[in-house]
Amino acid sequence: MLFPPPHPAAPAAQLTLEGLGVKIVETEDDEPEIEVGDTCFYILATDRERELPVKITANQNNPTAGLISEMHPLAQAMLGAHIGDEVVLTDERGKRTYIVKKIIKADAS
């Protein structure tokens, strides 16, 4: 059974009854954000067919191996992003928009 939707000003969580217990259902506000140590999968907005993984590290930087340091421009653009967010990177190669497709938290392994 699903309770009525919360008031628009209420926190963005809904409750469901499961058996005798109550469970909080995750909502957009509960989505993880990209932090150092996480692996994220992203696509280039102009090439939605190819999903690429990258792990954001504290100090390792080897983009061809899928590792970028938190100081790398792409990492700087992605830190704090959520699934579905568009992040824009502007550098000497121009302006590119990436879309975050998946986040694997560092503590999930």
Radius of gyration: 18 Å
**CATH architecture descriptor name of the largest domain:** Roll
Number of H- or I-type helical stretches:
1
Number of strand segments: 7
Question: Quick one: CATH superfamily of the largest domain?
Answer: Transcription elongation factor, GreA/GreB, C-terminal domain
Specify the CATH class of the largest domain: Alpha Beta
Sheet with most strands: strand arrangement: 5-4-3-7-6
Instruction: List the helices and strands in order.
Output: EEEEEHEE
Question: Keywords, please?
Answer:
5-stranded mixed sheet, mainly beta, Chitinase A, domain 3, about 5% helix, about 110 residues, about 45% strand, 2 domains
Care to describe what's here?
With 109 residues, the chain is mainly beta. It has one helix at 73-78, and strands at 14-18, 21-25, 39-44, 47-57, 67-69, 86-91, 94-104. The chain has two domains: 1-30, no CATH class; 31-108, Chitinase A, domain 3 (Roll). The strands form two sheets. The chain has a five-stranded mixed sheet. Strands 1-2 form a two-stranded antiparallel ribbon. A hairpin with a 2-residue loop joins strand 3 (39-44) and strand 4. The two termini are 33 Å apart. The model is unreliable at 1-27 (pLDDT under 50).
List the helices and strands and how they pair.
Elements: E1 14-18, E2 21-25, E3 39-44, E4 47-57, E5 67-69, H1 73-78, E6 86-91, E7 94-104
Parallel strand pairs: 4-5
Antiparallel strand pairs: 1-2, 3-4, 3-7, 6-7
